[in-house]
Task: structure prediction
Amino acid sequence: MIRINENFQRLQGSYLFSEVAKRTKDYQLRHPDMKVIRLGIGDVTQPLAQSVIDGLSKGVSDMGRIETFQGYRSDEGYEFLREAIRQMDFVSRGVDIALDEIFITSGAKEDTANFQELFAGDIKIAIPDPVYPVYVDSNVMAGRSGKFVDGRYEKFIYMDTRAENGFTPDIPKEPVDLIYLCFPNNPTGQVATKEQLKRWVEYAEKNKAVILYDAAYEAFIRDPEIPHSIFEIDGAKQVAAEFRSLSKTAGFTGTRCGYTIIPKEAEAYDADGKPVSLNALWNRRQNTKFNGVAYPIQKGAYEVFTAKGRAECNTIIDYYLENARIIGDGLKALGISYSGGTNSPYIWLKTPGNLTSWEFFDKLLFGIQVVGTPGSGFGKCGEGYFRLTSFGKKEEVIEAVERIKSLKL
Amino acid sequence: MIRINENFQRLQGSYLFSEVAKRTKDYQLRHPDMKVIRLGIGDVTQPLAQSVIDGLSKGVSDMGRIETFQGYRSDEGYEFLREAIRQMDFVSRGVDIALDEIFITSGAKEDTANFQELFAGDIKIAIPDPVYPVYVDSNVMAGRSGKFVDGRYEKFIYMDTRAENGFTPDIPKEPVDLIYLCFPNNPTGQVATKEQLKRWVEYAEKNKAVILYDAAYEAFIRDPEIPHSIFEIDGAKQVAAEFRSLSKTAGFTGTRCGYTIIPKEAEAYDADGKPVSLNALWNRRQNTKFNGVAYPIQKGAYEVFTAKGRAECNTIIDYYLENARIIGDGLKALGISYSGGTNSPYIWLKTPGNLTSWEFFDKLLFGIQVVGTPGSGFGKCGEGYFRLTSFGKKEEVIEAVERIKSLKL
Result:
């Protein structure tokens, strides 16, 4: 008799964004005439930049001719793309990353979910609360969670991020093994300074821990003092892997491409305490379970790392940052406190009137047909909070803000 | 101190195809003037069909306009593609599969590697020998293998497939939990009859086992009596999941799209023996760890399931089947015995002169600059065998056969 992975039964409800999508769809089916504005799931609305379209088209065209047709290639991605990433994202910021430390993938969701496979089943996981649910659920599936008791898994170390600590996790008091960090943060919209990251790197060095650094939103950073990569911090290469995505940088949510940086210096340890290269482990993992990103997609992605393509993408990001400003100004006018909204696409707001997150979700959906994401879906500390995203169309964002102002709060 | 997943250390050498690619590259670097013919890794050489190129182009164009731009969509894939698959692959063969039993993915390598995540860590795995290495390695990484002793992992049940049983695995004598089957088979090129599959389904029913049915090469079946899907067998929906790929069906090795069928009737069991839906578990797995296939790729894939696109793809498959015939005829003329080559893109030959698989690999590479895949890389029973693929260019296949004939064997 074949038995299931019972860890799946410890997962709480359905995946957050599936649940939000389902409730929204149900409402829309019952009220087909109502115009719902979606600021919930962090999905972009602007089309791809023209340079990216041109790159994709070139890639497609190459697939139609025998001289330029592309079949299986190295799982880690084409060199033309990795070299462009190396130059634009790292060398230009004074960070030296080698080509074989860059892995092109289908996106940061997949990679941040898969990275935990490299580690033992009983390592101690430190996860911020609130947090992107993938970090939690992938570790639950892998059996690292223990039971779910009183809103939390017993074996995880939760790093509370609340108003009191500026919605940025504090360093754990005990030793942990794998630390999940995301800056600019999803969902709180906070960024980390070099000083803050330096303390994390020092903590990881001291405890022989590894940092999973999710930098999916780095393209939204406009403040020159804020680091885009954890590898801008000395010593980080020994203790961190960085996950990046074109989903928000270049509108690739439906085009799917990300990249993961695993330095050759990064290490974990076998049972005898002997260091093992994470780069080698990840390479073997990818060789065995992944077959690379479609060639046309990589051709399109390449354009994001040209001067012209990046300028076009930045124009789109500026558009979203303007949306964030509009939402933030609207909330300020209503006296609703929030975090994020600058250097970040996310606005993390305190629900008015002490509503629970799902109560506020229902109030917005049923009352004014605006969809956001309930903060409680990101963790216990998210209860009473709500996430809005700036990825909508500007006219809809303006309308959503007007509708929120019309609510009796 | 963060510890690694020590199961990775039980993996044997590097991933087979990476090793073949590495040795070939090393040779080519040392002998840049030599023309190497690659019949090793199963990579196609013909460009994508025109309909597919048109579909991809339409998809790219849609991404450049705000009215047609596509962002996140359901992880399981667009309905237009799933409906087309349902009709062409299943309804047309008298098999009723629902839309929500079809999951669009990046390919069968990823899916067959990931499927084992749904099951307990100590289930008993039955794997043919020789076999596609991904089935083995993904289970080793998951800790199901035990030690590697004398060429085999102690906890796996190996199903020897040799000349004596027609290179088709026999049903195990003991109960097992998860059975890996692949027809047309990689690497032996054998197909399974309905009668044979019926016995597997009965075995699985009796033992409450699940069959992972890899049908990545079904498009090469030309004999009308041979089933394309395990779901053509009564009762299979309760005990099987089927994995398909456009890599060989439509030349998508570098375009990346596959699909997995998990019927709602398919079940595994919790510790109390209560049945749990595999469809629901896979859905949750995909929701959490996967974000869908790029929209332009799905638009291209759709064309494979139109009458026009399929006809174009079949012309390409006929081209490869002709290559297989040429290789087979050449081997026959040399008195080399082999399996496969009809209804299949693979030729599995007995190495002449009792050479080991890698000795024959070196003899072909160094002697006549032809690259194949050493049978021993697929398992212990593959020692003394060698896999050639029919995915080359016809003129190169002819030349490779002439070169093989010139060898002193």
